[in-house]
Write the structure tokens for this entry.
Amino acid sequence: MSAVKEPLFHVVKRDNSSFLRGMLVRLAAIVLGLIVCAVIIVLLTGMNPLNVYAALWDGAVGTSRRMWITLRDSAILLCIGFAVMPAFRMRFWNTGAEGQVLVGSLATAAVMIYGVNLPPWLLYTLCPLAGIAAGILWGIVPAFFKAHWNTNETLFTLMLNYIATQLVAYCIIFWEKPKGSNSVGLINMKGKIGWLPKVWNNDYILPIIIVVVMAVVLFIYMRYTKQGYEVSVVGESENTAHYAGINVRKVIIRTMAICGGIAGVAGYLLTAGVGHTISTGLAGGRGFTAIVVAWLGKLNPFAMMLVAFFLVFMQKGSIEIASQFNLNENASEILTGVLLFFILGCEFFINYRLEFRKAEKEEAIKA
Amino acid sequence: MNVIIVFLQKAITQGIPLLFGASGEILTEKSGNLNLGVPGMMYMGGVGGLIGAFLYENNAANPVPFVGMMIALACALLCAGLGALVYSVLTITLRANQNVTGLALTTFGMGFGNFFGGSLSKLAGGVGQLSTQVTASAFRAKLPVLSEIPVVGELLFSYGWLTYFALLMTFILSWFMFRTRIGLNLRSIGESAATADAAGINVTRYKYLSTIVGGMMAGLGGLYFVMEYTGGTWVNNGFGDRGWLAVALVIFARWRPLNAIWGSFLFGGLYILYLYLPLSRDMQEVFKALPYLVTIVVLVITSLRKKREDQPPAALGLPYFRESRG
């Protein structure tokens, strides 16, 4: 007998965690999270929680217009999620999607404003290209420093967000209409020049199509191409990558160029397809939510779709709850936050199991 | 001359919340935890203090400033500490990803702050803007005689007690980290948790304590802003992006508390510099990016010089699981 006190339980990694089990645990976590949210709401308002969840449903998908907006915003969030996913695969913590989206929007807006007299085909080519180029630029700067001098990318990309914000603020004062309003207003409202066109008489569907196509392409790129494989190897171990003859610097910079480019597309969609304007709050924290999307979606484009939809659904619904019950709209962030905590925490129970002291002793006796 | 004194005063006032946040985050990061929830915890600390003071002032017949102050202080510590506790449970015990959990905490904390700050008086059945002036007066009280001295008094003694507490706290933190055995243990965890564990240090306990205490320190920054800076009221998103600036200050200070002191004054000055220069509106916006630009420059220079004592803790952001060695 050892004199050392045995802990009550210890943690063991599961080696065969089934897909179904994982899904059940996640579902349980979401249900638990919703119950905690309900308790919070009841404590605050004294309302029947069932009514509250009815309002949530109504706010997110209650009318066909709301449904489309929820779907479109999910697509945009997903697109920004794609802008962090390849980087995360190689353990490059891109916290700068917010800024990369903003500069993408900014470049798009610039082309829309100054290129108003260009032939349409040229304008519609230049707008997305400008957005993508700006996003790439914002993405490769920290990648370059990370690749060459191992400069901490989490903090570098984080700081670049605010420089992007100020850059946008600077340009807004340049373009503001009317002077002194500190806002650009709808760009090219007359003639809707450069705006993303309607498809099947539907304002919302084109961004969704673009992002779904992007999901398929990205899935193929990450899984079936040599470049995608290189990203995974660098993420597993930079040393292994070196020994395998992979040029790690090149992979880091190339992958961040892709990430920045995707963020630029999201910026283009936001300016040309959604807001038709440019403002410092255009990305609205989505660059950070996208990180959650990518992580909870296990960096898989299709799982990320579900997460993005779920988060936007909760957001839209909570805003409706807030307005129906006369709460301040920030209630939605509290509810989203609580749900995130539960979802983040439940991964543990999917990947590990606890072995209790007693059970172990019995095993020892058997042996 | 007068303008310069006012500028310096304002720079210090702006710097103090950053100093609280950065000191807390230095303590947290030295244990290897990169807690990006700092902005959230600062909001939580601020609104926690406000809720406590508000409930006290509304329910007491004759609210006493000192009592209100102690209640606000306790509530701020509690709220911010709870935020840090959630982060700790998720990342240390449940092994969730630190970056993602921190960002979730920031979302939650900012929502928590804006929600309660914005609708507290309505929830309590009142109308109009929430105000806790009595409590704030205790936070804003200046040193009686000394603050009257021209120039020197205005520069050094014209602040509420939290300002001096921030400085004291940072000195103690520096002494604790670099001059005590426990501080050495803590730093060793941030460099290599497995090595520290092998040396018999209780990694989990250290990580929990440093993260929660760090969160509480950050929360005091929010309390300072709400009580001393805005005088006991709440403006939605009034705290702005100062939380991220505090994270930036940690890098700027190269994980040394004493550097964070002058760094915080510098950042505070850069934060408001645009108001004191004859700038057009567009150039003002450019100047607002200065603190972030300076941080990037410092980050790059530190990584170029590769001086060992200037580097981030080696295990920063990495999880530690005893069972999965390697």
About this structure: Residues 2-30 of chain B form the longest helix (29 residues). Chain B touches chain A through 56 residues (CB under 8 Å). The radius of gyration of chain B is 20 Å.
